[in-house]
């Protein structure tokens, strides 16, 4: 036996008593004062009971660009009206039949943007309302009428004219011009939009059924689909940052921080990168175009000596003149190691027995953007300072850190860095892609990099690509899928939270 809930009866009763044959769900909700999800559930049940059906149709509606013309005329109508008024004033004052007016004068007297004016002018010229040449507009039609596009739009959406528009056109008694290709023109301009509309209407059975004789249903269908609501949640970058921070804190590290706009001194010179290094080129570095201040003269002098001749480290340095002017250039930091050297100096770490610091930092490089490179990305910086540290300690740290993320298949390869020696790159094996990928760059700071700060203890350090870590933990293959304009919002809403180890699918 057929039974209906009170909500189904309310929807059915509304449709049976309505003059219009079909409605969108939002319109039914609005008319019946019911919530949209409630109406949606009731409609789904009525469809199952073959009392209503969903029909899809294409309708022309006012587009986003057309919203601004709800209380004013289209640009072409405004321009046409203004030209007629200017011509009338000229004729009344000069007692002449001249109908040509300067284009510049019209443009100055009408409140249209450059784009609106150009579109309106082109339309009136194409339709034969005006003629344009040698900086003059000649009016060809003098009738005060609604031009085709305006007339067509008015037939769909009658304009409630603002006081300004009323005053501007109060002397006009419009006749009507034919609509010809106006629909196509307005659709092309985005003023009108062809939209797919889903509406609900009664079936033959729904029209004939007597609601008053139907038994009321009080059961709840817990399997009925409802409108999905997506609550606020952490972005995967914030989620991974939380995981990384937790691991470092558990390993006894402290967090440090530094500015995104740095002087070249802290970002390059302070850490023994030569002033002719390719990374300083405009092709690789974003220059702010201004100068910044340098620290005290003693440190600057020691950095200069180490750069030019190695200072008291036993090194020969780079054997090239060092410039304070180059060092004071302001740049967007190209790596987070600048913060490490700030830490050495401002916290006087030469007197500290041992310390461990990390930093998750945004950095900037003029990179060619692809699946694994962005011009703005993040880096995880860190260092450990203590007596008798070796390359084996550094390898051990890297393995322990990544083991906490489920990455255990790691190998190391020697590389060159200006400020660390020895230096090495760590790679991990991607079981899914069956290939080795870069994981982390690391090394032991050179004496030339540490001497200006009075540090004689060994310092192991690393810089890992945070974005690639996000790719690992979210199981994505392209950085652009997790951040930026190409990121899929639907994926952000529905993706699984990162829990446990890297291989955890829950």
From TrEMBL:
The EC number(s) attached to this protein equal: 6.1.1.20
Q: Has UniProt tagged this entry with the keyword Protein biosynthesis?
A: yes
Keywords from UniProt, A to Z, are: Aminoacyl-tRNA synthetase, ATP-binding, Cytoplasm, Ligase, Magnesium, Metal-binding, Nucleotide-binding, Protein biosynthesis
Q: Which Pfam families match?
A: tRNA-synt_2d
Stored SUPFAM superfamilies: Class II aaRS and biotin synthetases (SSF55681), Winged helix' DNA-binding domain (SSF46785)
Q: Which Gene Ontology cellular component terms are annotated? A: cytoplasm
GO biological process, alphabetically ordered: phenylalanyl-tRNA aminoacylation
Domain (Aminoacyl-transfer RNA synthetases class-II family profile): residue spans on this chain: 237-485
- Can you say where in the cell this protein is located? Cytoplasm
Location, primary (coarse class):
cytoplasm
Domain of life of the source: Archaea
Q: List the transmembrane segments.
A: none
Q: What InterPro entries does UniProt report for this protein, alphabetically?
A: aa-tRNA-synth_II, aa-tRNA-synth_II/BPL/LPL, Phe-tRNA-synth_IIc_asu, Phenylalanyl-tRNA_Synthase, WH-like_DNA-bd_sf, WH_DNA-bd_sf
Entry keyword Aminoacyl-tRNA synthetase: yes
Q: Which GO terms describe its molecular function?
A: ATP binding; metal ion binding; phenylalanine-tRNA ligase activity; tRNA binding
**Annotated family:** Belongs to the class-II aminoacyl-tRNA synthetase family. Phe-tRNA synthetase alpha subunit type 2 subfamily.
Identify this protein by name: phenylalanine--tRNA ligase
